[in-house]
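Subject: for your reference before the review

Hello V.,

The reviewers asked for a structural picture of the protein, and I figured it would be easier to keep everything in one thread rather than splitting it across files. Below is the amino acid sequence we used in the manuscript, unchanged from the supplementary table.
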Amino acid sequence: MKRELKIRPEEKIFLFIGLLNWRKGIDLLIQAAHLLRDKPLRFLIVGHGPQESIFKKEIQKLKLDDRVQFMGNTTKVGLFYSLSDVFILPSRGEGLPGVIMEAMAYGKPIIASNIPCIPELVTENYNGQLFQDGNVLDLVNKIEKAINEGDFSTREKGENSLKKIQEFDWEKVKNQYLSFYEEMISHACGK
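And here is what came back from the structure prediction:
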């Protein structure tokens, strides 16, 4: 598949899977790709969404067709996880993102925005990197760090992702959410 996509051996592959809209931070990914245009990397974007055509036009306008590729919707996401080096989620808002859990189950290091719920899955320098929400320069720094890391470090973070998801404590998360909702209800009712 690398040959079909014309991916050079030195390129690090960053994978995004999800809905193609502003909330998921695709615009941030495109801006980062533009700022990193001379680095050995490739972004593969899997999914469809309401703003897909806007993002594609921006890619063409910035002449990033060789750096950012839209792969469409597929049920064969395992193929893309296998192909990628790092999973990236520059989202502005999430619940507990299943797509990060999926990437962890495939043993991938993660770069994601530091928004609520994501730090429960991604631990800085253990199984990935967190960047300040909406901060393109911080995202660029995290991507550069991933590019400059050796294969051993990338592989180690991926292994840590797999360990972390295997040890994930659903009961603890459920209790945290219940406490949060009870506190919100208590405040709303003036207790």
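For the response letter, the relevant points are probably these. The radius of gyration is 17 Å. The mean pLDDT is 91.

Happy to draft the paragraph if you're swamped.

O.
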